[in-house]
Each structure stands twice: as structure tokens, then as C-alpha cells.
Amino acid sequence: ETVIAPPPTVARPAKPARKKRRRWPWAVAGVVALLCLILLVLSAISEHGQQTVPPPGGEESMQLLESARAAQEQGNPIRALNLYKQAQEADPQLVEAYLEAGALLAKMGEMDRALDVYLQGLAANPDHPLLHQRAAETATLLERWDEAHAQVDWMLREMPEAPLSHAYAGLLLLAEGSPCEEARPELQAALELDPDLPWAHYGLALCHLQEGNREAARGELEFVLGQEETSPPLRARAEQWLAALEMGVKGIIEREFQALLELSTEIPEEDGLRTIFEDLLDQVKIAWEAGEEERATQILQDTRRWVEDHRDALGDPLAEELIRHLERIIHLATEPPGP
User: Is residue 288 part of a domain?
Assistant: First the structure.
């Protein structure tokens, strides 16, 4: 039997081992690119949100502010004050709502309420210069010395170059009974910064009155009244002093009292309103003629509160006119030498 041997096995050359490709750099680069894309998208969304979303209360508060201004122009101060209050609550940083509400209250003769509004504004905006200026002015006119000092000290510290800072400082010295020699440097400093500043000229008028120079005081008061920027409260004070120079304090009180008697004819007779008001004035006259000035002043203050309580029935224009004359008499009767 023939045995066939298998052919010899020929060894094939071994294939070289394939080198593994390193994929991780590409994976890392992909992750980084994805993260960058996500960050870009988030940044775009954030910027878009900042541009399109108004601050809380911003739009609402501005609408309320415009409505308050419209109500004031239409002769409806009570509605205007309510809208100003809503605007302040919607956006406590809306300074205009405090400034305009305070100015309206001052015009209505509500100086105490005006100061309260300015102080509320400062509680929310402690570094706003206009609020400090209005608060200083109003507190000085009201002779609320602690508050006046606080505001003037802030102004002198934070606004040393502002002419009003020095004018109010000088007025405060005069109002507290300091001699003109102490107040005049502050008033002169204010005039060096602003030669036409009404408050500084008013302070000089008080200086001249203190020194007995009536003609110089008259000239300063007439200058104050001739300035368009003179605020309503300052204008009223300057008018009172000018009238006092012409007819004396007693003459002014008699004139204001006569104006009240004439206005009483415009008070509605319904519910006995006119009769009540006239009775109150009669009580004032009797007390004055009896030399009971404190009692007369107290009745005048009661009359003012009565007018405020019956504002709706009297109507805003008449109520404001009555309050204005009552305030003048009360001020002159109680503290005629005041600022």
C-alpha cells in the first residue's frame, strides 16, 4: 500500500499587528465644543430675557405715575395723591412719585404730610439729593429742628458744593435765633455758588429784618418773588413777610380773616356746612377781641381740621383756598418771627 505524505506546510509570514487608533482626543474635543454651544445658547437666552423682561413694577409704576399727573392736571388732587401712593408701592425707587406727591401736598398746605412723604422716599432712596433738599426745606419751614438738622448735616457732608446746602444751613441758624453774624457766612457761600438762589436771598432778608433794615429786607423779598424757580412754600413765606412790612402782622391777619369771611359765602348750605364754618369764625373773632390769642389759635386749628374732614362736600378748590388762608393766620399768630 502506497502512503502519500501530505505536502509540507509552508509557513506564511505573519501580518504585522494593526496599531489601535487613539480616539479620546476627538471625544474630548467634541465634549468641549458641545459645552461651548450650550453656554452660548444660555447666554443668548439670558441677554434676551434681560432685554425683554422689565424690572418688577417698572411698567405698572410708570403708568400709575402718568395717571397721577393727569389727575392733578384735571384738578383732582385727592385721586392724584392716591395714584402717587400706588406708584410708590409698586416701585419704591421711583423718586418722582415722592417728589411730585410732596410738592402737591405742600401746594395744598399739607406741609406735615409733605415732609412725611419725603422721609418715606428717603427710607427707600437714602442717597437721593433732591429728596434730602425737599425734606430740609420742609422741615425748616415747619420748625421741626431735629429733622431739619439731620437733612442739612447730610447735605453739607455729601453735597458741600451745592449752594442749597449752605443756604439751608444759614436759614437754620436764623430760625433757631442765632445772630445774623453767624448765619451770613453760609448765605454768602451759597450766593457765591449761585448768585440768584432764592433761598439765600430770603435768608438775607431775614438777616436785614433782624438788624432792623426794612428797606434792604424788602429788596431781597421782592427779588425772591421775582424768580420763577421760587418754590410755592417759599413764595408764600416771602409774600407774608412783604405784607408784614407794609401793614404789620396784625394787618395781615385781619386781611386773611376777611378773605375767609368772603369765601364762606361759597360754602354749600346743605347739611349746615356754611353755618358751622361761620360759627367757628365767630368764635375766633370773640376770642381775639377778648385777648385770648391761644384760644383763638386753637379754634383756627380746629377749623382747619374741619375743612379737611369735609373736603369732599366743599370741593377741592374751595377747601384748598380755605386751608391756605387758615394756615397763614395760624402761622402769623403763633410764630411771626419764624423762617
Answer: yes
Quick one: angle between helices 111-124 and 95-107, nearest 10?
Answer: 170
Mean pLDDT of 107-126: 93
Q: With a threshold of 0.85, does the pTM exceed it?
A: no
Contact between 333 and 253 (Cβ < 8 Å): yes
Rounded distance between C-alpha atoms, residue 108 and residue 265, angstroms: 21
Please say whether the beta carbons of 135 and 118 come within 8 A: yes
What are the contacts of 291-294 at 24+ separation with CB within 8 A?
Answer: 293/333
Q: Is residue 255 part of a domain?
A: yes
Q: Cell 458741600 belongs to which residue? A: 160
Q: Rounded to an integer, what distance in angstroms lies between the CA atom of residue 322 and that of residue 313? A: 13
Give dist(CA 262, CA 160) in Å, integer: 48
User: Considering the domain boundaries, does residue 152 fall inside one?
Assistant: no
Kindly state whether residue 300 falls inside one of the protein's structural domains: yes
The range of the structural domain enclosing residue 294 comes to: 249-334
**281-332 residue pLDDT tens:** 999 999 988 888 889 889 999 999 999 899 888 888 888 889 888 887 887 7
CB neighbourhood size of 38 (10 A): 10
In total, how many domains does the chain have?
Answer: 1
d(CA 78, CA 303): 20
